[in-house]
Amino acid sequence: MAQIPKRVTERLTKEVRKFQRILQTAKDRDINESDTVIIITDMLSSLFGYDKYSEITSEFVVRGTYCDLAIQLDDSVKYLIEVKAIGLELKESHLRQVIGYGAQHGVQWVVLTNGTHWVIHRIKFDMPVSSELLCSFNILELNPRKKDDQDILFLLCKEGISKDVIEDFHKHIKSVNKYIIGAIIQSESGLNNIRREIRKISPGTKVETKEIEEILVNEVLKREIVSGDLPDGAKNKLKKAILKHKAKLDKNKSEIKG
User: Fold this and answer.
1) How far is it, in rounded angstroms, from Cα 108 to Cα 124?
2) Rounded to 5 degrees, what angle do the CA atoms 88, 92, 93 make?
3) What is the pTM of this model?
4) 3-class secondary structure, 92
5) Is pLDDT at 106 greater than 70 in this prediction?
């Protein structure tokens, strides 16, 4: 992830602590949605760095109604925010609501929050429209001096949006995650590497990749890594990458021979 400017880390450190106190008090009082929106607006300004009067709007019309908040930079909506009362648990129906808003106006990034819990989704404009979780966090549990926590907050900061940090983070987690790593381990080259390491440990041992694969699938890897839409998608992505890499190597060899 891009280096966070010093002035931003200082702002995050100061403002997270302040809003943790404000949010905890608001949660204890069980304030309503309208009052929660007021706090979120202040957070977007003081914590995330947006100008309250020109870059944060509650006048974004979607299908005859207003989305709670929207971030606009250079006349472009960067992300929409749906706010629920601080004491209300975030639900799938709430997520569908903000995804619907984003899909209606072609806004790719949407945020659902009740002040303490924040969920960031990226809309996939397929048919039908769907979304994928980028990350989620509870701001009451963050340590503003911890780099990983600052990195998460930076995704929504004005300075982070201007540097496309959220896009870079999305590309990273699409390539570095448990499903991709699981697919690599189960691939032909992954199984062959494991077999070579076993032979180093016990020279002369006869072991086939099929046996290794069965052990991985049945005894080592979690079921969610082995089967399902996400593991299958990771395997297909790896397969395409391998074929693309092979084609590139073949092309280079042909050019060298030519």
Assistant:
1) 7
2) 80
3) 0.77
4) helix
5) yes
